[in-house]
Design a protein that fits this description.
The chain is of the alpha/beta class. Helix content is about 35%, strand content about 20%. The protein starts with 13 loop residues before the first strand and ends with a helix. InterPro entries: Mur-like_cat_sf (IPR036565), Mur_ligase_C (IPR004101), Mur_ligase_C_dom_sf (IPR036615), Mur_ligase_cen (IPR013221), Mur_ligase_N (IPR000713), MurCDEF_pg_biosynth (IPR050061), UDP-N-AcMur_Ala_ligase_MurC (IPR005758).
């Protein structure tokens, strides 16, 4: 099912506005690998931009009308690009087709067996687990992920196999463009308040996504999450759709029997329903998930179920999932200094914050969990600020930065105080810090040997990890100089 509205040659010489973004760069990379002459622009240079240039893409820094080549066959945009962007205005003036990123991704998936991973949380991790494990088995999938696996630019790959794994973003309803053979829905919650006013709108949007699954395809969906169970009931009755559930619920087709934490990994035992049959086999399987936390174990089981839906033997896929060791910003260990581990978390929704803090607590041992949290978006903080604060109460201490606006304009009266006040009401040790540059010194002064520090949020809080490590290292060096042994030597 080819995407509607794209001319056959529209992606021959595309120009990407914001080409260095997590979602845009992946689509651009696959197009380059398929032989397209890709160009684009971004507001700043970055390792991702450098990786695209190495592949052969032309990337301009800064946005200007002259960046759009005279022979560009399309201009690719995401929902984050404003209508007054100079390059977008130029494209319209010159009659160059404007293509949304989701339409470009749908075109890339055409002719493959797509797995589209949707849900309010866990999309990047689950997509990554599938991409890595399928590659480990030699199936050479194509994939587009919303984050880098190991090095900049590893968020996407054009593979020679028939499977294409991609994130399906519900935030702007762009996942309605895809026609997957297998759709995964991990959970269904209210988020993206600028685009959804109620849970009814969320359910309607996810139901439209399910309706796009190809005839004879499979919906893999959580049997535990209340919103997912509600959605399952809403889409029941379609005869040409197989529904495959997973989770700890007694009626799950792929049932999670046990999740045993081992430091920053887990051992998961599942039972596959007899009805799965085919090459998947039924019975119990135990395998390792190389990232901590029950929610990541469930992501791995969703990946296992999706593989089974495409007749990838579960007993082969399960051990291959252990080869996934994480994706940048998803509980990514940034380093250790002065016996303090610094970990980066993309969590920005209350459910994600609580899940990551519970996961990391298991790996902290006797140490404390210290969080540097940056609320993301004014609209999200307005609706969920209280819940964010409640989740932060799971940490031993938190420092909260000002809101990261991303694409949004400020909303009067909406500040990070909404999060801080709620955290304090729930007994949290929480501090406000408006000066971002003060954070490394503040955290270095708080942290003790054995502690874990999390930089948490979807904004530029991630950049603080290396700065905190550097300050911890400096503190350690000064301490060594002051020690009696150093003075005696």
């Amino acid at each position: 099912m080819a995407p509607a509205g794209i001319a056959p040659d529209a992606l021959d010489r595309p120009h990407f506005i914001g080409i260095g973004g997590a979602g845009m760069s992946g689509v651009a990379k696959v197009l380059v690998q398929r032989g397209a002459r890709v160009a684009g622009s971004d507001s700043k240079d970055s390792p991702i931009v450098a990786a695209l240039r190495e592949l052969g893409a032309t990337v301009h820094i800064g946005h200007a009308a002259g960046n759009v080549a005279p022979d560009a066959t399309s201009v690719v945009v995401s929902s984050a690009i404003r209508a007054d962007n100079l390059e977008l205005v130029t494209a319209r003036e010159r009659g160059i087709p404007v293509v949304h990123r989701s339409d470009a991704l749908a075109a890339l998936m055409d002719g493959h067996r797509p797995i589209a991973v949707a849900g309010t949380h866990g999309k990047t991790t689950t997509t990554s687990m599938l991409a890595v494990s399928l590659r480990t088995l030699g199936l050479d999938p194509s994939y587009v992920i919303g984050g880098d696996l190991d090095v900049p630019g590893s968020s996407a790959e054009h593979g020679g196999g028939e499977i294409f794994v991609a994130e399906a973003d519900e935030s702007d309803r762009s996942f309605h463009k895809y026609a997957p053979e297998v759709a995964i829905i991990l959970n269904v919650e209210l988020d993206h308040h600028a685009n959804y006013a109620s849970m009814d709108e969320i359910y309607d949007s996810f139901r439209t996504f399910v309706e796009r699954v190809r005839p004879g395809g499979t919906l893999v969906i959580s049997a535990d999450h209340p919103g997912a169970r509600e959605l399952t009931a809403k889409v029941a009755g379609r005869e040409d759709l197989r529904v495959l559930t997973y989770g700890e619920a007694a009626d799950a087709d792929v049932r999670v029997l046990d999740v045993v934490p081992h430091g920053l990994t887990s051992e998961v035992t599942v039972r596959l329903a007899e009805a799965l049959g085919g090459g998947s086999g039924s019975g119990e399987i135990t395998f390792t998930v190389s990232v901590p936390g029950r929610h990541y174990a469930h992501n791995a089981v969703a990946a296992l179920a999706a593989g089974a839906a495409l007749d990838v033997p579960a007993r082969e896929l399960a051990p291959a999932i252990a080869s996934y060791t994480g994706v940048k910003r998803r509980l990514q260990l940034k380093g250790t200094a002065a016996e303090v581990q610094v970990i980066d978390s993309y969590a920005h929704h209350p459910t994600e914050i609580a899940a990551d803090l519970e996961a990391i607590r298991g790996g902290a041992g006797e140490g404390r969990v210290l969080v540097v949290f940056q609320p993301h978006l004014f609209s999200r903080t307005q609706e969920l600020g209280a819940e964010m604060g409640e989740a932060l109460a799971l940490a031993d201490a938190s420092v909260v930065l000002d809101i990261y606006p991303a694409r949004e304009d400020p909303v009067p009266g909406i500040t990070s105080a909404l999060v801080i006040d709620a955290a304090a009401r729930h007994g949290a040790d929480v501090t406000a810090e408006h000066d971002r540059s003060a954070i490394p010194g503040l955290i270095a002064g708080m942290a003790k040997p054995g502690d874990l520090v999390l930089t948490m949020g979807a904004g530029d809080v991630t950049d603080l990890g290396p700065e905190i490590l550097a300050r911890l290292q400096t503190r350690r060096a000064r301490s060594a100089l002051r020690s009696p042994a150093s003075r005696e030597s």
